[in-house]
Design goal:
three-stranded antiparallel beta sheet; transferase (chains A, B); seven-stranded mixed beta sheet; 14% strand; 399 residues; Aspartate Aminotransferase, domain 2; globular; PyrdxlP-dep_Trfase (chains A, B); binds pyridoxal-5'-phosphate; homodimer
């Protein structure tokens, strides 16, 4: 088809949406790899493990029985019930199945929840650094993200005091993640409860992203839903992507207060009809107790990797400001080496073959002096990566 | 968790989103079925066939090889290439793989395309009746759907003349579907080209939903992308749901002009990360020539059903205004019997066990006097449904 060369007007708000800088690094890393270079991938935010076999076995079995049609828009009733049971058994949380909405990835859960809450020009408070899509979801609804710079003193998290100090008119919701991406840090449950109560007084919502739930180390996994007297303004986002290792299956969920369920259902019916059916049957299998042992084994591997990587960094003289309790990330302040994390990541990739994520993906404010290390590769490779980086930065200082 | 009974403010625009009326009918139909009634389902807009076995076999094989991670946000390169080849081979259309964005269902393709084009307060012209989600996608972006009533004189479709007659300031896009839901009618390719050219002069886009492509009868399937001199303002939406029978796998795509691709990619990265990986491998299999024969067999079954159902309706004295050329729907003007299609559908369900979709899902203007019949069930059951309806309406007239 001979293309007409006219271009037509595009959406101003969509044009402003930032790309993932990590995709550029990933692209360059792949090219180098194809050219024969030995690349250590620490840029990608997903488990290196494939999904456990019980997932595709169950998906296949369902498909063989002809279960390949749309499901109910809020998800298979038996999956919503299984999640409700899971909350009771593992978190001591009493969450009715009717409050659980199964979504295509937690990405859609985030979009659904924000769409149900926000009108245009509403404001949403979130930490800087934060998961990059959150800002964009808010902007796409013509609402306004308010970023509050946080640092290691609050473990890169919001807390009640920070909410109070930064409160302003028009804030309809606050978004937090625990454990968080890119920092791996938690918010303690009693703090979350206090934040929810404060927000309830302000008639605002607390959106708690628990998608790295289960991936916590040296302490039990928790859910804010287990808190007694939680006000009706808390929406919890979760996913089968990370702890359950099912990224490519695109399945998540959200738990919402009863008064939002009907709106969430209508949004789901219109925005995406239903979550992938094979994935839902796969998820039913992975929630079975016997199949969780593999996930616990993987969790332990992540814990070991965290410890090895953290130690290697400290030993190399790259002092990290804290040891994160969860997820699979370390957040590294590189200001000693560079004030341009994108250039720094490119430089490291070219000179050491180590691929990291520039902090600018997560933080407009201070991202230029941070990078994220994902321990989503073998322990020994992680240590080798630090050795390579250390050797390279050494040559730089001495020249 | 004792629920606090406070409710918190919800989004005004989201509250206005209409539910699918068909879900209510579906729920009632299922209840009656469980109570032992013999229900004929003609309300559901998806093929009754499960996805062909090659789909889950390929998905399973990929999963066994560990291919369960996120894919590139625009889709597996080999799937984009396979779609490009498909366009060349079956439609004689030259569509570069780089212009194809694989999405989680065409639902997300619609959302992506509209998000890339629209700013708030922009207007989008569409036919009344139309696929219900289109209005809602537009509203969620704080843009305004403009519905233009169409009837059998234009085969329930927009055309160049209707565009001219209804043109007004601020229209950024026109949405059409060919074949359409709920009417099953087509727009001829030369008309589509003229519409695209007219819109190009107005600096506006034409979004062509081809998701029922392949499901056309007594004529070859076509794509607007095969038109020469197509201006750069045409976005095509498509899906593996209907012709390919993969509804539950949630996989679709869009073909966009080059200047939109980068924005679509950034939107995809933020809105949903990537389409389901097993579904993408499944789709790769179904696009293989050998596997298309099963789809052709199914297409012929739909064609027979259309003819049987249409004849049965005519014979029963339910004169339909036209014989649709595609999809799997008939659109029936019931004004002779009722001016309240929702009540009419409920009444039919209770008295005859036949479940239909009220036109109000598709048309705020004239939906109250139309219903949609989906021929997504066995031929003989379709004829029985008409017999039951005829017998029931007979008793009504005579009493
Ligand atoms: C904090 C956080 N929330 C949500 C998501 C979205 O994940 P998914 O859509 O796979 O559930 C991610 C993915 O990296 C994340 O890091
Ligand atoms: C005209 C039309 N477009 C788009 C869709 C969305 O389908 P999917 O998201 O399964 O591709 C449908 C579903 O019924 C439809 O009828």
């Amino acid at each position: 088809m001979p293309q007409n060369t006219n271009t037509f007007p595009v959406s101003t708000s969509a044009s402003e949406i930032e790309p993932f800088r990590v995709m550029k690094i990933l692209g360059e890393a792949k090219k180098l790899q194809q050219a024969g270079h030995d690349i250590i991938h620490m840029e990608i935010g997903e488990p290196d493990f494939p999904s456990p076999p019980c997932v595709h076995e169950a998906a296949m079995q369902a498909a063989e029985q002809g279960l390949t049609h749309y499901t109910a828009s809020m998800g298979l009733p038996e999956l919503r019930q299984a999640l409700s049971d899971f909350y009771r058994e593992f978190y001591g949380a009493d969450v009715e199945a009717q409050r659980i909405v199964v979504t295509p990835g937690s990405s859609c859960a985030l979009q659904l929840a924000l769409s149900a809450i926000l009108d245009q020009d509403d404001r949403v408070l979130m930490a800087d650094p934060t998961y990059p899509c959150n800002r964009q979801f808010v902007k796409l609804l013509n609402a306004e993200p308010l970023l509050v710079k946080v640092d290691h003193h609050s473990r890169y998290q919001l807390n009640l005091q920070i909410l109070r100090d930064n409160w302003q008119q028009g804030i309809k919701a606050v978004m937090v993640a625990s454990p968080a991406n890119p920092t791996g840090t938690l918010i303690e449950q009693d703090e979350l409860l206090k934040m929810a109560q404060f927000l309830a007084q302000q008639n605002a919502y607390l959106i708690v992203d628990e998608i790295y739930q289960g991936l916590v180390y040296q302490r039990p996994a928790e859910s804010v839903l287990a808190q007694e007297d939680l006000p009706n303004n808390v929406v919890v986002i979760n996913s089968f992507s990370k702890f359950f290792g099912m990224t490519g299956w695109r399945l998540g969920w959200c738990v919402a207060p009863p008064h939002l369920i009907d709106i969430l259902d209508r949004l789901a019916q219109n925005l995406y009809l239903s979550a992938p059916t094979p994935s839902q049957y796969g998820a039913l299998a992975i929630l079975k107790k016997a199949n969780l042992t593999e996930l616990e084994r993987r969790r332990k591997i992540f814990e070991q990797r965290r410890d090895r990587l953290y130690d290697a960094m400290q030993n190399a003289g790259f002092r990290l400001k804290l040891l994160p309790q969860g997820a699979f990330y370390l957040y590294w302040d590189i200001s000693e080496w560079s004030k341009d994390s994108e250039a720094f990541c490119r430089e490291l990739l070219l000179n050491t073959g180590v691929a990291l994520t520039p902090g600018t993906d997560f933080s407009p404010g201070q991202g230029c002096q941070h990078v994220r290390l994902a321990y989503t590769t073998d322990e020994n490779r992680l240590v080798e990566a630090v050795d390579r980086i250390a050797a390279y930065l050494q040559t730089k200082t001495t020249t």
